[in-house]
Amino acid sequence: MIAIALLVLITGCIYGLWRGLPFSAAQRHGWAGVWRLACMIAAVRISIFGMGVLLMRSADWRQSVGHILVLVGLPEIYAAKALRFQTTAWFAACCALLAASSILWAALFLLPYRAPMKQADERPKN
Q1: Among 25, 34, 102, 111, which is 20 to 30 Å from 58 by CA?
Q2: Would you tell me the crossing angle of helices 87-110 and 30-55 to the nearest 10 degrees?
Q3: What is the CA radius of gyration of the chain?
Q4: Residues 84, 74: contact at Cβ < 8 Å?
Q5: What is the DSSP string of 10-63?
Q6: Is 6 helix (H, G, I), strand (E, B) or coil?
Q7: 91-95 long-range CB contacts below 8 Å, 24 or more apart?
Q8: Please, what is the angle between helix 30-55 and helix 2-20, to 10°?
Q9: What pTM was estimated for this model as a whole?
Q10: What one-character DSSP code corresponds to residue 117?
Q11: pLDDT in tens, 45-102
């Protein structure tokens, strides 16, 4: 239970620092925006995955809750199924997969909101 509380506290601190830093609106577009959103997605997905792994260690009703929380990592964690019986290596591989795939998820989320490309014949008017 202490580990779950620490994960929630760390995630909250990261979010608070992230929101408190003065970023301009220009940094929320392009690769800077993708990177920022990817970090947030990775932090949320890895913390929920970590809580699920911790809950799966018990043999009572918490194991079923942990299993549901681990499913947050699908389909990425399916790639690490060969390491399932080595829990430390499995957890590290799944966290790396979740962090890497968060960049793709962030790019997919920001794709509809990207600025339209300027045509070659369009020039800024003064």
Answers
A1: 102
A2: 150
A3: 19
A4: no
A5: HHHHHHHHHHHS---GGGGSHHHHHHHHHHHHHHHHHHHHHHHHHHTTSSSTHH
A6: helix
A7: 91/50, 91/53, 94/49, 95/46, 95/49, 95/50
A8: 170
A9: 0.66
A10: P
A11: 888 898 888 888 888 888 888 888 888 778 888 888 888 888 888 888 988 999 999 8
- The pair of structure tokens assigned to 40 is 């947030």
- Torsions phi, psi of 35, nearest 5? -65, -40
Please, what's the largest Cα pairwise distance for the chain? 70
Only one residue has tokens 């829990």, namely: 87
Q: What secondary structure letter does DSSP report for 72?
A: G
Task: Give the residue carrying structure tokens 């990775």.
Answer: 42
* C-alpha–C-alpha distance, residues 18 and 107, integer Å: 19
